[in-house]
Amino acid sequence: MKKLNELIDCEFETEINGIKINSKECKKGDLFICTMGVKADRHDFVDDAIKNGAVAIIASKKINVDVPVVYVEDTNTIMPKLMQKFYDNPQKEIKIIAIGGTDGKTSSSTIIQTLIGNDKCGYIGTNGYSCSKFKKDTNNTTPDADKLYGYFREFLDSGCEYVAMETSSEAYFRHRLDDLEYEAGLITNITREHINIHKTFENYLECKKQEFKQVKKEGYDILNYDDEHYKDCLEACSSNVLTYGQDKNCDLYIKHFDIYTNRSEIDIIYNKKEYHITSPLLGDFNVYNLCGALLTCLSLGFKMEDMIPRIEKLEVDGRLDALDNHGLNFNVWVDYAHTPNGITKLLNFVHRLDINRSIVVIGQAGERDPYKRPEVGKCVVENSDYAIFCYEDPRSEDPMNICQDIIKDIKDTHNNYEIIIDRESAIKHAIDIAQKNDLVLILGKGNETYEKLKNETIYFNDEEVALKYIKARKERDDLNKR
User: Fold this and answer.
1) Which of 246, 348, 371, 432 gives a 20 to 30 Å CA spacing to 325?
2) What pTM value is reported for the model?
3) What is the Cα–Cα distance from 178 to 214, expressed in whole angstroms?
4) Cα(first)–Cα(last) distance of the chain, in Å?
5) 62 lies in the same domain as 110
6) 8, 35 Cβ separation under 8 angstroms
7) Is residue 351 included in any domain, yes or no?
8) Is 9 helix (H, G, I), strand (E, B) or coil?
9) How far apart are CA 125 and CA 164, in angstroms?
10) Are both 277 and 302 inside the same structural domain?
11) Within a domain: residue 84?
12) Buried b (16+ CB within 10 A) or exposed e, 302-321
């Protein structure tokens, strides 16, 4: 608990129990900050905030209310500073490892947490926030500051010294990460994404590069030497630079790797010493995710010999999850891949395996980057045998219009796809048509547990739905054999 004048220069001694930017979450004694969201102007919700218990307001526009109001020029930029004071500056006590990039943030962050140990390292990202003491959900890949600093404090109270945090481009754009300093910053790769927010790729790239500008001078910038935007990232670095990739001059040299159906065998050279690693994570992209994570941990003083035994325990929720096929002669995988780059890399890996056909179920989110929808449609039909396009968090958009955007550039050139708007029906159909040695890939949402529709958010989990129809297919096949 803090007094308002302890958080910001003002005359009010109002006691503050918590700080919120969502009026629905306000409780008695809270301070409500009228931030500017993607669509929402939270000045419009001050009455609801007060009704729910807010006792003071931070605003940048004139409002008429009966509780203390402090006016600032920019509510978004002031919020992190208020949160730091409210939680007694936890960002100065915990060592922050920032992980950015278009694809691979969740996997790399989870790998780092595993290599360090979840008793010492927390995780914040797409899969929630967690450590050895708890695992909880979040609303954003990188939470707003009103939640973020509270998470830092929870980690410290649970005995963590580090936090591996996914840092999205939107988080930098929305000033969620202002004032934070990182022990190390890792960028996995950069491809075109989120143009609906950033308007141009150049703006998007600048937000990605911001990560390196917040690494401490004595900290480490970890760069993927083989990424096409390596030099762009290098220009932004002012700390110690370390590289990983398939060039002999990289600090961590990926000498050779082989990918099998159940493991990856990797030979790397670090500090003039060669190491052989067996990883349960599959795909070329996961070789890079692992090596970037290893180099990040090495930069922080962790020993290779201590980390290698932990690699066999690696597991990333919603990433290449092979579901129990209950004895069927085909397999079903669930993966979070949703960008053209991520999808293409995944499908290229899949077709190096001994499979018959690849059947892909995928959609694209509503109220998000519409420019990548045709790119996704094209890369899916060109890199798979059959595609089923469906809804995926359509929000206020018409799901059929989204699917029409997806097929815009392929409808006159390809016929290896169909549209089944309802996602559950699409998953069922993919499993129903699968034949011997086929691989069904359900992409886009991983192990998420929701679908955001026009007027509501419903519970929905790709893995649970797929397992339901795998069991139904098995029962039907067994019955037909009798």
Assistant:
1) 348
2) 0.85
3) 9
4) 69
5) no
6) no
7) yes
8) coil
9) 9
10) yes
11) no
12) bebeebbeebeebebbbbbb
State the CATH number of the domain containing residue 45: 3.40.1390.10
Q: What is the largest CA-CA distance in the chain?
A: 82
Angle at 78 between CA 72 and CA 81, to 5 degrees: 140
Q: What is the three-class DSSP state of 432? A: helix
User: Which contacts (CB < 8 Å, 24+ apart) does range 448-457 have?
Assistant: 448/318, 448/336, 449/137, 450/393, 451/391, 451/392, 451/393, 451/423, 452/365, 452/366, 452/393, 452/394, 452/395, 453/394, 453/395, 454/394, 454/395, 454/396
User: Nearest-CA neighbor of 161 among 214, 122, 110, 135?
Assistant: 122
CATH number of the domain at 403, please. 3.90.190.20
Nearest to 79 by CA among 8, 129, 140, 11: 8
How far, in whole angstroms, is CA 179 from its chain's centroid? 22
Residues 138 and 228 both lie in one domain: yes
- Residue 183 belongs to a domain with what CATH number? 3.40.1190.10
Asked whether residue 469 is domain-assigned, the answer is yes
Q: Are 204 and 193 in contact (CB under 8 A)?
A: yes
Q: Is residue 316 part of a domain?
A: no
> Are residues 411 and 339 part of one domain?
yes
- Domain check: are 299 and 332 in the same one? no
- In the block, residue with structure tokens 């109270």: 157
Residue 126 and residue 272 in one domain: yes
Nearest to 162 by CA among 102, 115, 209, 211: 115
How confident is the prediction along the chain (482 residues), in pLDDT tens digits per residue? 899 999 999 999 999 999 999 999 999 999 999 998 767 899 999 999 999 999 999 999 999 999 999 999 999 889 999 999 999 999 999 999 999 988 889 999 999 999 999 999 999 998 999 999 999 988 778 888 889 999 999 999 999 999 999 998 888 887 888 889 999 999 998 886 655 566 687 788 877 888 889 999 999 999 999 988 899 889 889 999 999 999 999 999 999 999 887 899 999 999 999 999 999 999 899 999 999 999 999 999 999 999 999 998 898 887 888 899 999 999 999 999 988 988 998 999 998 888 999 999 999 999 988 889 999 999 999 999 999 999 999 999 999 999 999 999 999 999 999 999 999 999 999 999 999 999 999 999 998 999 999 889 999 999 999 999 999 999 999 998 87
Domain that holds residue 476: 321-481
φ/ψ of 71, rounded to 5, equals: -95, 135
Q: Are residues 347 and 473 part of one domain? A: yes
Contact 210/172 with Cβ under 8 angstroms? yes
Neighbours of 421 (CB within 10 A): 16
Structure tokens of 180?
A: 């934070």
Please check whether residues 255 and 399 belong to one and the same domain. Answer: no
